[in-house]
Amino acid sequence: MSIVSYLYGGRLATNWTYILIAAIVFVIGETLYLMALKIIDVSIIAPLFNIRVAITVILSFIILGESLTNKSLYLIILIFIAGFLLSWMKSFH
Q: What is the span of the domain harbouring residue 70?
């Protein structure tokens, strides 16, 4: 850490505000995930938790203007259909 401080004139190169915001959002997300594990079976929550990848791709398309290929669009639709089917099948048990 001291080498980095020396290279940047005694200051850290990162903006601690963004790191603090990211840490708070992470803790909130993990807390909600653990609360969901208490309510719903892990065999349902684990696949639904992986929808976050599709949401990240969608947000990067909307906010950052990233390109979205047909293949990634089909996979996003497939992920959401699988999540819906898992939730729907849970209601029958």
A: 50-93
